[in-house]
Structure formats: structure tokens, C-alpha cells
Amino acid sequence: MTERLRRWRLVLGGDADGTGMALDGADAGRDAVLDSLYGAGDRGGAQPAAPRSAGLGGSAPRVARWLGDIRTYFPSSVVRVLQQDAMDRLGLRELLLEPELLDAVQPDVSLVATLVSLGSVIPAHSRETARSVVRQVVEELERRFRQRTVGAVRGALDRATRVRRPRPSDIDWDRTIRANLRHYQPAWNTVIPERLVGFARRHHAVEREVVLCVDQSGSMASSVVYASVFAAVLGSMRSLRTSVVVFDTAVVDLTEKLADPVELLFATQLGGGTDINRAVAYCQGLVTRPADTVMVLLSDLFEGGDRDELVRRLGALVHAGVTVVALLALDDRGAPAYDHNLAHALAALGIVAFACTPDRFPDLMAAAVERRDLSAWAAAEGIVTAAPAS
Questions:
Q1: What is the DSSP letter of 171?
Q2: Quick check: 389 pLDDT over 50?
Q3: Backbone Cα Rg of the chain
């Protein structure tokens, strides 16, 4: 019974009057940091109309201690939630401009998105610390996704160029022998190849063009972080010519910054309106070999520009042979808000529209490079796509 009361005491907060149980040790510490954030007025009973008690105050050192305390008392998954609540409820975005606070924060994608959105207003004395925090998260994401992405795309490129009647110099002998083992002739101690497996001659050093067209409106903040990391990984592959274009109501080509995803991120300007048609028009001009091009439009599709012209332009790209993918989000949330009518209009053109988690993005790119049926791929992955309008 004591354990049950202890849990209720931690949930209710305040003092011991409600449960008759006092806290001590680590539980007292947990209660203190929660009370500093949520305050007695938000515990849901006695004072519903009272203002939230900003227990952290305006002192940067005190906030730094609080950020350290929550990492002491709670696991990382809970720390991220508490940090986000502190930013939303107590105005910590302003306080995070102090370097001592940045040193105390648990780095994650949400924090990176916040720092990038602050961007130009970060004072000089905090700028290097902010970049250090962003770089830490970006490098962790690169370690997580680089090998899988490169492996998946390279494998797709190999499969896409494999042919059944290769020239002698293009025969893949290892795969040919494996494919014909059932034709082994014991008397001759050899395999008679009924089917040759090889690769088509590669006339271009660059085998595919990838255009990432990324919506940098505020609602896409986490997606922009992941997209920057994947863009840098794809940009490092010599078999791809990767371009990255970000947009709100303006369009900016950031391809020259692909070598450093941190610089790429800080070159974005999170927030503002959305003109997808203008961005797609620019990206259309980057396409030189339509049949060998994959265009990923990362946007929630809330168009502020010419909607009808956008649909016509995307239809022209599909008709020319470009593989176009409409990603509604590239993050771990799973259920983005998006313009359903525009998503249905794109689906009617054969453009698959769906949200994608970062873990699935390497396989998505592999399927797009091979020009597979992306609707079938999404269905096999259990991903819900926007259906064409009936």
C-alpha cells in the first residue's frame, strides 16, 4: 500500500495533506523538479484559474541546475518531454540562448530544431555552444543512418543496372555461378551457365540524380533536421548527383553546403509561408535526365501559391519520367497534419504521398532508385498512403 501511496503522492504533487505521505531522498528531488515546471496551480484541483507558477524563475544558473536535476532523476525519454514542456510553458527558448544552459540540456532533434529556428538571434557568446549541441545530434544521426542509407542505395543501383544478356566484360561471374549451380556437371567438374547475369555498361559516372525539395515552414522543423542529415549522406555518394532546395515563400538552393549538414541546417530559415509551386518550378530546372531522377518533395502540402499550376507541374515531371515522391513528414511522429485534398490530387497523378520515419527512408530511396512501385512498397511496409480521389 505504501508504494501505491508513494506513486499517488508523486502524481498529485503539492504537500503530504492529500495522501498523508511525505517524500524524501530521490523522490523528494523528483517532486521538486516537477513542481518547478508544472507548479501547484497546474496540478488540477484547488486553483484551476491560477497562473502557472514558473518555478524556474528567470535565473540562468537556476535553470541550468534544474536541467541537470531532471537528467539525474529521469531517463532520457522523459527528459526530452520535460525539456519540451519547459520550452513551451516557461519560455525557455529565450533562456537557451545562454551557453551554460545549452551545456546542461539533453541534446535531441527537437532541441536542434529549436536552435535552428532561433538561428540569427542567437547571440555571439552562445553561437559556438549552440553549434556544438547541433553537431553532436547530427553526428549521432549520421552514425545511425549513414551505413544503412549508402548500402541500400548502392544495392539498388547495382540491381537497377543488372541485365540478362551482358557483354563478356560485363558478366558478374559470382552471381552467374550462383544462379546456375543446379546445372553443375559432375563429369566435367564445371557449371554450364544457362543464364548470364551482369551489368549494363555505365555511360555516366553519375547514375542517378536526386533532388530533395524541402519545406522549411515551422511545422516541418523536425523533418528539416532529418532531411539535412540524409541529404549530406546522399551527397557524399559519387554515383548520385544530389541537390537540396529549401523553401517557404522564397526558394534557396543549398546544394553547395551538402558537405556539412550543420552548416546546411543553419542556412535554413524555419518559419514563414509556403509556395510549393515556386520551389517545384526551380527543382524542375535541375532535372537533366528525367528517367534517372528521383525528386523527393518533403512538405505537408499546405500550399500558399498556385495550387493548380503545382499539380500541372508535378504531372509534367511524372510524364517526363521523373520518380516523384511526396513525403508528408520525415520524423518519428507518424501522423502528420497535411492537406488531404492536394495529397489525393497527387496520388491521382501516380505520386505516392505518405509520412516516412527516418528508419524507413533508406529503403524508400532504394525502392525509388530501382523505380519500383512505391505504392506496393508502402503497402508491404504497412505505411498508409493518401488514396486518389474517387
A1: B
A2: no
A3: 26
| pLDDT, position 122 | 76
Pairing of strands 198-199, 162-163: antiparallel
Unique residue bearing C-alpha cell 519500383: 372
What would the grid cell of residue 10 be? Answer: 508523486
Instruction: Say whether 310 sits in a helix, a strand or coil.
Output: helix
Determine contact, residues 333/370, Cβ cutoff 8 Å: no
Q: Give Cα 102 distance to the centre of its chain.
A: 22
Distance CA 359, CA 239 (A): 22
Residue 389: Cβ within 10 Å count: 11
Cell triple for 78: 522523459
Is-above-0.85 flag for pTM?
no
The count of residues in the chain is 390
Output the nine-digit C-alpha cell for 154.
548502392
Question: What is the average pLDDT score of the chain?
Answer: 82
CA torsion, ordered 123, 87, 221, 304, to nearest 10 deg: -100
> Residue 182 has which C-alpha cell?
543446379
Amino acid at 54: A
CA 278 to mean position of chain CA atoms: 23
**Residue 219 corresponds to which cell in the numbers above?**
511545422
- Decide the pairing of beta strands 208-215 and 293-298: parallel
Residues 156/366, Cβ–Cβ less than 8 Å: yes
- Cell numbers placing 185: 556437371
pLDDT at 276 over 50: yes
Q: Are 217 and 274 in contact (CB under 8 A)?
A: yes
